[in-house]
Amino acid sequence: MSKKLLSVLVCVMIILSLTPAASVYVDRAPDETLLYNFTFENEAEDGQFFAINDDTVGSASMAWVSGAGVGHGDDHALRVRNIDGNYTGRDNAVRLTLPEPLKAGAEYRILAWVFAPSAENPRKSTLTGPGVVLNGDYPGAQGEVKFPENFGNFPMDTWFEMNFVMPPRTFDIEFIDFRFVINDADKHPDVWFWDNIEIWQVSDVDPNIRIPEWDLTLPSLAEAYKDHFLIGNIMEVTPRWRSEHAEMFTLFYNTATVENSMKPAYISPSKGVFNFGGADAAVDWVEEQGITLHGHTLVWHSQSPEWFTYDENRHVLTRAEAKANLELFITEYAGRYAGRIASWDVVNEAFINSVSSDTFWKDALRIGYGPDMSAAWYSAYAKGMDRDAGEAQYDYIYDAFVFARLAAPDAVLFYNDFNEEEPGKRNAIADMADYFNNKWKDDPRNTEPDRMLIEGIGMQAHYWVNALNPVNVEDSIKRFVESGLRIRITELDIPMGSWANQRQVGLPVTDDELERQAALYEELFRIFVKYSDHIDAVTIWGLADTLSWRARGLPLLFDEYFEAKPSFWAVLNALNPEDPEPPPEPDVSDDPPPPNSPDNPDANPDTADPDDGNINEDTESRRLWPIILGVVAVVAAGVTIFIVYIKKHKKA
Ligand code: XIL
Predict the structure, then answer these.
(1) What is the pTM of this model?
(2) Which helix (H) or strand (E) is 265 found in, with range?
(3) For 126, which of 153, 154, 279, 432 could close a Cys bridge (C-beta 3.0–4.6 Å)?
């Protein structure tokens, strides 16, 4: 009887302790097909791997290594090393170019083992998240390209398995970058090993998968607006972009802005390093097409490298040091493209998110600084400034414009920001431009007395369907025009909902929502046409809803299948005489997003940064609980056995 009980208990114990472990991960289902298996025994066989290490994207080095036990279960692995102390994902990726692309429309499992030796990774806190990026599309121009969706920490000195299934994509996968998801130096290894990379096909290609496709028979927006202003959109000129979007781009648009790779962090990640690959490709391409490029951007608190304003110990540089860096960067960068880049966003977002009415412009600038780089230029310019000589922290704005003018005298220079439809912010920005333009009049470096230094205002125009009152936009245009400034609508998108009340993901879109959005696009474009003598261009920030940085709100002119939405037709309709029947009044609430809110267009860049690790704390705890349960079960079973044993003994 007691023997029976004992064996039952042992069984229960085994089952209990195994069940949670089994739920930690399922290696793979039995009917999957192995497509590739890389064991890194033979470089010639695995030759489709290379460390991203060219001047456009990265700085890792890698080598095939062999030695007793260096691999995962064998003696071979791929050893990777960070070269230059930059930790963005793409800097440290190892790219696998597939001999045959993985076809769109099927599920694939990607499985790989990673190892980080503590001896070669001193001073790290917790290492975070191996993952992949598809087709090198770090900006996410093809939709969801980064997996796994949830990732956590991984331990040092033990092989860690990355194993996930990707849902069917609507594009073929040509290459896969194996990288870490986090940018922080203390969470990213310096030396690591990959091994046993396997790719499995999990499902057949779904014959009904609908691949988005551009309809090249639609009317051209650029053509329709050719008498008023340029119409633009964003791009990243990569081979894939050329094959999927380039033709459509030249049909609809006649000016372009690069979405990410022309920002300071990508152009010059560290002092003395310039990565002009993305910018060169864009400049060459627009020239081939005979369209213009708007440079974005030279000075910004986000997506900027630390070397601009900090030393190696993260101490803010002095005014003189920061100014020298500013001059070096702008002279090299803007100078390189002098005569080829038509206009620049010289300074982006120097003002705080939301400015209450009647705030003096100098009191509305970003002045804090911290790890988010917010106002780092401002802080450095304060260190060692000579007040008596009239020096001020905000002189970095003036200097940036002057350096840009001297480096690229033909380019039209813009100040760019968001929430400019707010009366307080619009006035602050216009006053700032007046102030610096006035100062420039007496600057001995000014050789064109009739030309302003800040020639225009870029209005980002990241609006919300439920929070936009177009009248405010018109008033801001009027105010800027009063100061003699040109206008450029630089980043237009209008997601559904409002900052505080965002559209639920996955909810089918209604005709009413689409119509309300279209009505706003139409109203805005009617205003733009009215002021077209002062407007150089209207650029939309994204090709289609799924490719948008604010994809959740379906903010653009084309849907997930690249079909024209009512908003597209509304933009064209804005050229026709107004309907006697006005469009329905949008439900307007004027509240601007609170400062530093995660969805404020300002706060967002960091969250949405293509290389940024967006750690989901939840994931970690979810991973831990099966293990905890397992331990509890083992302990409980052990205690029970012990009690039974004692009882049995006592009886005996
Ligand atoms: C955004 C890009 O669209 C994203 O891909 C990136 O992750 C963050 O930056 N204001 C700007 C743009 O000036 O550069 C930002 O672009 C959007 C807000």
Answers:
(1) 0.76
(2) helix 264-267
(3) 153
